[in-house]
Design goal:
Helices cover 41% and strands 20% of the residues. The protein is an alpha/beta fold. The chain has an eight-stranded mixed β-sheet, with helices on both faces. A five-stranded parallel β-sheet has the order 4-3-5-6-7, with helices on both faces. Strands 16-17-19-20 form a four-stranded antiparallel β-sheet. Helix 13 crosses helix 14, helix 14 packs antiparallel against helix 15 and helix 14 packs across helix 16. It starts with a helix and ends with a helix. 43% of the residues are buried.
């Protein structure tokens, strides 16, 4: 039965199978009003049934499109399963979605129903919602009974009066599985719009079940694994992680940005799913905390990490675990291995000490973490190396909403470091040049793929769908990459984000931005320079760290925040420090140096300059600071 569900079933089949197979086990742990709640698989089944029955009584049916505006909570996953059990199509989004964007999505998706997390959200969008004529009902997850005669707004407390379940109802609920097929749409997710207007990605049960079927093997998922969840539940990466955990009887703990560090230590997860930006935040936080405690401690920690990284690198040389893009002679390979063997002998005693000390860092992650998955974009090399050096096994994964999301991942069976691993099972992946020709290993081109996980198209957007696929049915990712000789994938940039200078030189901004944000006094940075003579950077400083930096570098420096932002001496010094690293010896070209920089006084915010997975919306940032950019690069 379980194998049949995975091969041919839907998400609803998966829920029914897991709720029976793991009935008494804990599916979710969450907090509400400072009280911890544990939910068994059996209760998850009951809760989904009760809510589905209530939705059905309010005319939610197969193919009804339901806007779900909520952040992570247990009620989110219950709502999700209740809707998909009816064959309804969820249109999910986070509660920080701006009113104009919400209005666009509801109208473009032709939503008939709206589920809001709180009454506060109802009030925040009240004026806009009054103008929508197609909404048949609005449901509030958290709130007292609010329904009034002749009104179409209900709280869950209004619609869940009858929470009893008789055997006949359970049978009818289960029988709904026969009305669903793999080709049915279960969700419509609007992309976060990093490069323009959001597009509605249609995903089928077949698309997501490809991930449920194949991802557990990629990460060697076990029934005993415990996840701590922090990413937005509506985002396909987090959503897929939760489905995968449920398919194997795992427990998921709902956390938050505020409680994440404490929850790691309390719940001691074996698995976490994060995005590169969160790892970047941890990297900066750990280094800055040590710097504040004691500069000597900070230097020692960096030395230990460096020793560990160098030892692991040389060991990988010896074991042929580094990416190879062109053939290397036997003599050269032997010389490389001999040098690596000598280096390992010299580093071995220092590495033993480093590993012993770095165990203390691992305790910050609960001490039981056997694997971390980073998705939603490739990890910058320095972060990949740092996470590996402190002793955390990292699955550097690559995916897109359009692929529900898996494309490639450095699985437990792949040891080629510095790559994303091979394409996932049964995925045809190729690298294509500008003329449409398939490129050889080591050559950079667009990543294209074909497989069961690839979406059928964008909602009500024939032109967008047509543009997204080649004539032979390959999905054009818009990402640039190359393959190793043994078939592992390396991302090199995004074609839509490439900056083209007035001289015609093409520049991948992410490489330079990753160098800039390594400086402790820089929180964030965006590279600019499209159609200009040279490059500039918009920089969000960490002002405390910046003051510390200039106190050691300049005899005189501004101290107030306002003056720091405009001090030309400081700007010049910071630019010089950055350009010291943007040198040919580090793999950068002469035109990749910064011509100018500008300090911003505000951090980038989710829902404004950042997507919900913390990716930068370049078009939004460039529009917002257009005047600044023009002055910066005259």
């Amino acid at each position: 039965m379980p194998d049949t569900v995975l091969l041919h079933g839907t998400l609803f089949d998966m829920l029914l199978n897991s709720s029976q197979q793991y009935a008494e086990q804990t599916a979710f742990i969450y907090r509400s009003c400072n009280t911890e709640f544990k939910v068994s698989y059996e209760k998850l089944f009951d809760d989904a049934l009760i809510l589905a029955k209530a939705f059905k009584s309010h005319k939610v049916h197969k193919e009804s499109k339901v806007m779900l505006l909520s952040d992570n909570r247990y009620a989110w996953i219950v709502t999700d399963f209740a809707l998909l059990s009816l064959g309804a199509i969820s249109v999910p989004r986070g509660r920080d979605t701006p009113t104009r964007e919400l209005e666009f999505i509801i109208q473009h998706a032709e939503c008939e129903f709206l589920v809001l997390e709180t009454e506060h959200l109802l009030k925040a969008h009240e004026e806009m919602l009054k103008g929508l004529k197609n909404l048949k009902a609005i449901f509030i997850i958290e709130g007292e009974k609010i329904h009034r005669w002749f009104a179409n707004t209900y709280s869950y407390n209004d619609i869940l009066k009858d929470r009893s379940i008789d055997p006949a109802e359970a049978e009818r609920f289960i029988s709904q599985r026969y009305a669903l097929t793999g080709d049915d749409i279960f969700t419509l997710i609007y992309t976060s719009g990093t490069t323009g207007v959001p597009k509605g990605v249609l995903l089928t049960h077949r698309n997501i079940m490809y991930n449920v079927r194949n991802m557990p093997e990629l990460i060697d998922l076990q029934e005993s694994d415990r996840w701590v969840s922090i990413l937005p539940s509506w985002h396909i990466f987090e959503r897929a992680a939760e489905y995968i955990a449920l398919s194997k009887g795992c427990c998921t703990v709902y956390s938050s940005v505020k409680t994440f560090a404490a929850d790691l230590e309390k719940y001691q997860p074996t698995m976490v799913a994060t995005v590169p930006r969160l790892w970047e935040s941890m990297y900066n936080k750990i280094n800055q905390t040590l710097e504040k405690e004691s500069p000597r401690k900070a230097r020692l920690f960096k030395l230990l990490v460096s020793i560990s990284a160098r030892y692991k690198y040389q060991r990988r040389v010896l074991r042929d675990q580094l990416p190879v893009f062109s053939k290397v002679s036997l003599l050269q390979r032997c010389l490389n291995k001999l040098n690596a063997f000598i280096a390992l002998l010299l580093l071995s005693p220092f590495n033993r000490l480093a590993q012993k000390k770095l165990l203390l860092v691992q305790q910050k992650f609960g001490g039981q973490l056997r694997m971390a998955i980073s998705g939603g974009g490739s990890l910058p090399p320095y972060l990949d190396e740092w996470i590996d050096a402190i002793g955390i096994r990292i699955v550097n994964a690559y995916g897109m909403t359009e692929c529900a999301p898996a494309i490639a991942g450095r699985s437990v069976s792949c040891e080629i470091f510095g790559t994303l691993g091979p394409p996932t099972k049964d995925t045809e992946l190729r690298i294509v040049g500008e003329e449409g020709q398939q490129l050889a290993a080591g050559e950079v081109g667009e990543i294209q793929l074909r497989g069961e996980q690839v979406f059928p198209g964008y909602y009500d957007n024939e032109e967008g769908t047509s543009d997204a696929f080649t004539t032979d049915g390959f999905f054009k990712t818009g990402d640039l990459g190359k393959l190793t000789l043994s078939g592992e994938l390396v991302i090199t940039g995004r074609s839509k984000e490439i900056i083209v200078l007035a001289s015609g030189e093409n520049i991948d901004p992410s490489r330079i931005e990753s160098v800039i944000t390594k400086f402790p006094f820089i929180s964030d940075a965006v590279l600019v320079g499209q159609d200009k003579k040279g490059l500039g950077a918009l920089i969000v400083p960490d002002f405390d760290q910046l003051r510390h930096f200039i106190s050691g570098k300049l005899e005189h420096g501004s101290s107030t925040t306002d003056k720091l932002l405009l001090d030309k001496q400081i700007l010049t010094r910071v630019k010089t420090e950055i350009n010291r690293f943007l040198q040919p010896k580090h793999g950068f070209k002469p035109f990749e140096k910064l011509q100018n920089i500008h300090f911003l006084d505000k951090e980038f915010k989710i829902g404004e300059e950042l997507t919900n997975t913390l990716k930068k919306k370049r078009h939004v940032i460039e529009t917002k600071y257009q005047e600044v950019i023009t002055k910066l690069l005259k």
